[in-house]
Design goal:
heterodimer, A: 381 residues, alpha/beta, Rossmann fold, 13 helices, 14 strands, globular, B: mainly alpha, 2% strand
């Protein structure tokens, strides 16, 4: 099942020994938002990509060839992302592109990659990136639609069917809100109260007061990102609302508990990746080894805790390297075909099995429902 | 009734945040007629420096003091390196310079600090205070009291002290002020230092509520600017009333109409007020001496 870097290295050493051709670098391109409004996503992504390339090269590279990473910082600006994508294709001559930290930058890179028929692995959430499926575009994070489904599934198990929704008006919040509205009826969930807030708002007590005043609300869901969900959580505690509160995977990080405060965040549930609860996974869990290896090496190299977002970059690079090892040649078309045949690759977000119809390759099972207890994460079964 | 009370308390909290930022605009505007768009960055610096000093193990009051002093020094340096150099330039150019400086400060902050969101503990805990069925956090009271104290301080400064009057004189006519013996270079440096310190104080008080990161400055400056315009630019009373009014407008709209239209309604009211009173509610009409 699990393809490790060691086997890749072994394969590469053998092939190198057999052919003995002087190694030319494999060029991989990336454009992520290291600075700008999405920098808290893009920064760990950039660090992860650099770290993995270093590790892979130190272990002998891919098929005996070293990887050369062309990494650009688009600052979260779709125009810049497009320019860098063009540069990666035309000037740098890369074999594949990783990146697009946000949905906006990913959608800007996509047409460039599609036109050049270059495989492109996005690190952004929205379902639009892989639905409808485009031949050369792939992505690693779960979609916001899956987050809604995971949350609604958990609500149904707890018998909560009438809910209030408070969402951010930023891109992430608005997109997830639309997906949640769309799938709610499939799970027998009725949204009886709906409120929004601006991404920079300082107080959401009026909106929460309105949701609470609907007598039959049984739970609250908060699609959002950045500081909004932390403030919603603090206001929810301030108002003493007793209904179960669900946050999105957009805030699945230890930073969120810190910002909201452990007391206010007590009992909150959210769908997250295995990366957050690496130590808690049973030994038998396929993801445990991968997650712990990445966590340890990232934290050692950067001195900062791992985040889900760095994990997306980790998975993208591993999918690509796995495909490079299997590809019949180093031509973009061959690499694309190999990526599409990815099967049973264990990453931090889940076990990836792609097909011509599925360029994400994750199912709901790869999302873990987490609950915050005493300031740390607990797995909910 | 508890609903209305909650909306009012929320409005007062948010309004006091806006008012504190708006008050920071007053001094520099009064000294030079320049709207300092880098004011939001001083708010950010106040919060961020406190966060990092606190994380480094300093006690919170000391961290706060360091943040305010550091911001004041940066404010003076800001004046020295930008406004003073471009002294002869028209006011519009100076305003654009402040926009540029704010982008610069933001860029440096994301390198020196980091790109994450931060917060430090509230001064008096997080147990909500109940008033008529609604709740308010103790930190909100700190912000409200802070805004009122800064307002009284500024009002006394401009009307009761010689330096405060010298600031006003400098703005009215720099050459005339020099002729009567006012050191206008010092007044400008002093104004920037003081307004940076007030901005930093605002940042310190609001961070436990609003959280902080290197990029909070611009949006705070815009809201503070809107509040100051509504109340009347340059008038401390205007900044206070404008801020609270803006906060109440937002929370009442979110509560009774729709949270979708919160910002739109607030800005429609501001536009309407400015049509009727172009100088803002408490603004003085500008005078040209011949």
């Amino acid at each position: 099942m699990q393809r490790t870097i060691i086997s890749a290295t072994l394969a590469s050493v053998i092939s190198f020994g057999l052919t003995g051709i002087a190694a030319a670098d494999i060029k991989i391109g990336a454009t992520v938002s290291e600075t700008g409004p999405a920098s808290f996503l893009g920064d760990p992504e950039a660090k992860t990509l650099k770290l993995l390339v270093e590790q892979i090269n130190a272990a002998g590279g891919v098929k005996g060839e070293k990887i050369k990473l062309f990494l650009y910082d688009d600052g979260g600006d779709p125009n810049k992302a497009r320019t860098f994508a063009t540069r990666l294709v035309e000037d740098d001559g890369v074999v594949a592109i990783i990146g697009g930290t946000t949905t906006g930058t990913s959608m800007a890179v996509m047409p460039v990659a599609e036109e050049a028929r270059l495989p492109f692995i996005s690190l952004a959430g929205a379902i639009e990136i892989i639905d409808p499926v485009r031949p050369n575009t792939f992505k690693t994070p779960h979609t916001d639609r899956m987050a809604c489904e995971k949350i609604f599934d958990d609500m149904k198990k707890r018998g909560l069917t009438r809910i209030g929704m408070i969402s951010g008006t930023d891109g992430f919040g608005a997109s997830m809100r639309a997906q949640c509205l769309d799938v709610a009826s499939k799970y027998g969930i009725t949204i009886v109260a709906e409120e929004t807030y601006g991404p920079k708002d300082a107080d959401m007590t009026p909106q929460l007061t309105n949701i609470r005043s609907k007598s039959d609300v049984q739970a609250i869901i908060n699609p959002g990102f950045g500081q909004g969900p932390a403030i919603v959580t603090r206001n929810y505690a301030q108002l003493g609302i007793a209904l179960p509160l669900y946050q999105s995977h957009g805030v699945a990080s230890n930073g969120f508990i810190e910002l909201a405060g452990a007391k206010a965040a007590e009992g909150i549930r959210l769908p997250g990746t295995a990366l957050l609860v690496g130590e808690m996974l049973p030994e038998s869990d396929a993801q445990r080894l991968v997650v712990m290896a990445y966590k340890t090496s990232f934290e050692k190299a950067t001195g900062t805790p791992v985040s889900t977002f760095g994990g997306y970059a980790h998975d993208a690079m591993r999918i690509l390297v796995d495909a490079l090892n299997r590809a019949t040649s180093m031509k973009p078309a061959a690499v694309r075909d190999a990526i599409e045949k990815t099967s049973g690759l264990v990453g931090t977000t889940g076990t990836v099995t792609m097909s011509a119809k599925d360029h994400l390759g994750l199912d709901l099972g790869s999302f873990r429902m987490l609950e915050i207890r005493n300031g740390s994460w607990k797995l909910v079964n | 009734m508890p609903e209305l009370m909650q909306f009012l308390l929320s409005g007062a909290t948010v309004g006091a945040v806006y008012a504190l930022v708006a008050l920071g605009f007053t001094i520099v505007y009064n000294a030079s007629n320049v709207v300092n768009f880098a004011q939001g960055e001083f708010v950010m610096l106040g919060g961020m420096i406190t966060v990092f000093a606190f994380q480094a193990g300093l006690p919170l009051p000391l961290a706060v003091l360091i943040a305010i002093l550091a911001a004041a020094v940066i404010g003076v340096g800001f004046n020295k390196l930008t406004i003073e150099v471009a002294r002869g330039a028209p006011v519009v150019s100076l305003i654009i310079i402040t926009v540029g400086a704010s982008i610069f400060i933001q860029g440096v902050a994301q390198v020196v600090f980091d790109k994450q969101l931060h917060r430090f503990p509230s001064f008096s805990g997080d147990d909500p205070i109940r008033i008529l069925g609604a709740t308010i956090l103790p930190q909100s009271l700190w912000v409200i009291v802070g805004a009122i104290v800064v307002f009284i301080g500024l009002w006394a400064f401009f009307t009761r002290t010689l330096v405060g009057r010298a600031v006003l004189a400098t703005s009215n006519n720099r050459i005339a002020a020099q002729l009567v013996g006012i050191n206008t270079t010092f007044i400008m440096a002093f104004s920037f230092g003081l307004s940076a310190a007030i901005g930093a104080l605002a940042g310190v008080l609001i961070t436990p509520i609003t959280l902080t990161s290197y990029q909070v400055g611009i949006s705070l400056a815009l809201k503070g600017f809107a509040a100051a315009m509504l109340g009347g630019m340059g008038n401390p009373m205007g900044a206070l009333v404008g801020g609270i009014l803006l906060g109440l407008l937002e929370s009442l709209t979110a509560g009774y109409i729709s949270s979708q239209y919160k910002d739109a309604v607030a800005f429609i009211v501001i536009l309407t007020v400015l049509f009727a009173f172009p100088q803002g509610l408490f603004g003085r009409s500008s005078m040209e001496r011949v």
